[in-house]
Amino acid sequence: MASFSEYFTNPHYIKAHGIVKKGNENLGFIYIENEKDISFWKVFFGEDILKSYEFNATKNPATIACGTRGKFRFDELICNANKSAIFALDSDLDHMTPNRFKRCVDIIENPFVIHTFGYGKESFTNSIESLNSCLESYYFYRPSSFKFTNFLENYSSIIYPVFIKFIHLLNYHPDVSDEGEFRKRIIPNQQLLSDMYFDDKFEDAQTYFNAYEQELDHLLNGDDIATTVELCSRFGLKQRNTYQFINGHDLEDKIVKVIVNQIKCNLIAEEMNNYKAEGAQGQLLGDRARELKTHFDENVRFRTLRSMCTRYSSNDLFRASQEQLTVLQV
């Protein structure tokens, strides 16, 4: 007798569900990690494919008791993914480290496990295309010239060799690789971020990451990393987009958020200086300062702009990851 969890991927069960619910025997499931991810995956799959599928964020009963969240609750299911039961997952680093877990192999080898290529959803919602689009609306009176392109492409180029070497260690020498340490070290401190973004100064960042790379070289002990380079390239990693492969939450919270907060401070300071130059003083200045704060915190809140933006659909890595969808086309 089949276990209850096996019904999640059983085409006959899914067919019956489709008939009962919508009178459509061809209606399949797309299992996702969290309900809040639906808006992203709607853009990813597109209207045509979604005519034949409905999203399902159900929890595998076998994992509820231990509180397992995210894609880990699907570990025992994704090996059985099929055209009726699609799994749409954040890649994290699994697709680049197949030696670590069985899940990693299933993600790579089962074509019905659709994954993000980049680290996760946030890798696209914080893509250059999305962030630049948000900045186009992020101002008070005069549009600014702020962009993320130069910063993120240069940052990516600098960290590329560090990323490749860490991935190699994680895949082949997990005993000497510390993912938590990597997450801390790959994020520049606030001064380096400011130098890179606002002053186009990358020398100190290059020195910082060169030192980290030397530590990784010592751990590699002469390993040939060509196979790792090839595997990472297969999933869209290039020197200019490495930022999309680091932890997406860290990218959003520890890089983008820090820079956007400083952009906001700069824009407010500029508007206040312009207002002073027009002769405003005293109470007028206080009123304008409150008006500016309210405007940026409520009217053009960056987090809201980003949540509504779908410009990432033009991102090269996003489009490359969408090539997985050919397996679903009739």
Defining traits:
330 residues; mainly alpha; 2 domains; four-stranded parallel β-sheet; 4 strands; flat
Notes on the protein architecture:
It contains 15 helices and four strands. Strands 2-1-3-4 form a four-stranded parallel beta sheet, sandwiched between helices. α7 packs parallel to α10. It folds into two domains: 113 residues, no CATH class; 193 residues, no CATH class. β1, α2 and β2 form a beta-alpha-beta unit. 34% of the residues are buried. It is flat, with a radius of gyration of 23 Å. With 330 residues, it is mainly alpha-helical. This is DUF4435 domain-containing protein. It comes from Vibrio campbellii. InterPro entries: DUF4435 (IPR029492).
Q: Give the radius of gyration.
A: 23 Å
How would a textbook summarize the main sheet?
4 strands, parallel
Question: What characteristic shape results from the CA principal axes?
Answer: flat
Which percent band covers the strand fraction? 5-15%
The count of helical stretches stands at: 15
Order of helices and strands: HEHEHEHEHHHHHHHHHHH
Strand order of the largest sheet: 2-1-3-4
Protein name: DUF4435 domain-containing protein
Organism: Vibrio campbellii
Domain DUF4435: 29-268
InterPro entries: DUF4435 (IPR029492)
